Amino acid sequence: MFEAAFWGFVGGAALLIGAVAGIYLPASKRLIGLIMAFGSGVLISALTFELMREAYDTAGATAALLGLLAGSLVFFCGDWLIDRRGGNRRKSPNGPQAGAGATALVLGALLDGIPESAAIGVSLIGGGSVGVAVVAAVFLSNIPESLSASAGMKATGRSTRYILGLWLAVTLASTVAAALGFGVLSGADPAVTAAIQAFAAGAILTMLADTMVPEAVEHAGALVGLLTVLGFAAAFLLSAA
Length: 241
Fold this sequence. Notes:
By secondary structure, the protein is mostly helical. The protein has helices at 2-24, 29-87, 102-122, 132-155, 160-185, 190-220, 224-240. It has one domain. It contains seven helices and no strands.
């Protein structure tokens, strides 16, 4: 469990790195969009070859697809509720919409980050080594996510203390989620573990399509497709190594 917590913290710590960069380093919105596109490609590769592939091999197509759809539906419903509270532009370098509450921003960040961290913990079940591609994907995608959101929150007047406190809380939650993903499921039937992996994949894929990719396209334009493919290729090579 401690190993799972450590790797969950490693993945979540990228949020703090991105937040510091978003607050203190000058970066154009176009550059932020390109980095988000690369991170999206990395995550798409990881959820395809590390999460869904293993879920399919362990539990078969039906369980894998049901888990995928369940994860997508749960994320969609949670995201819809958060959007109604003002959190729909939480990853935009322009900042969240006017009047967005702190609760919506915190819940949105948790909704985006916890499935990724749980997937890290699940990858350690059975005495296996951590899914390096999954950790790398979470780390590389978290940097542009928090960089963009932090730059946007700073632009709308949020204090540095508030922004760093938000991402510190999410990092700690990610650490706990990875530990729980391992601890709660370590004795579970392999089919249940596989379904959870597919669930995480569905939530992550829906998050990418709903938040990261649209923001990347809005701010970086036509090059987003190319950078997404490059991110996908990098993570694919890592998982195949």
